[in-house]
Design goal:
CATH architecture: Roll
Strand order of the largest sheet: 1-3-2-7
Distance between the termini: 10 Å
Number of domains: 1
Radius of gyration: 11 Å
Mean pLDDT: 93
Number of strands: 7
CATH class: Mainly Beta
Order of helices and strands: EHEEEEEE
Low-confidence stretches: none
Oligomer: single chain
Helix content: 10-25%
Number of helices: 1
CATH topology: SH3 type barrels
Strand content: 25-35%
Structural class: alpha+beta
Shape: globular
């Protein structure tokens, strides 16, 4: 875990900003695996993303991944450009 652990519900109040390096392409296979784990096995992943307050990590289920965002439960979206790491 790279960042402060937060709840999925507090993501909306965090000021998400792009990561220092765009890791989208490097993380694409991990994102797809996290989505599959969430949809088929109800497993959670550790998602670390960048905010104005520094890196934050949330342990949650990935519902879907689009070209630009990942969607979590309750309609929470995290821009792929802000991702630092995905672990499960």
């Amino acid at each position: 875990m790279l960042g402060e652990l937060i709840t999925k519900e507090s993501i909306e109040i965090s000021k998400i900003i792009p990561a220092e390096q765009n890791n989208t392409e490097e993380l694409r296979s991990k994102l797809n695996s996290a989505q599959r784990l969430g949809n088929e096995f109800k497993s959670k992943a550790d998602i670390t993303f960048n905010t104005k307050e520094g890196p934050k990590t949330v342990n949650t289920t990935v519902w879907s991944v689009t070209e630009s965002y990942m969607q979590l439960k309750s309609g929470v979206h995290i821009p792929l450009s802000s991702l630092i790491d995905v672990d499960f």
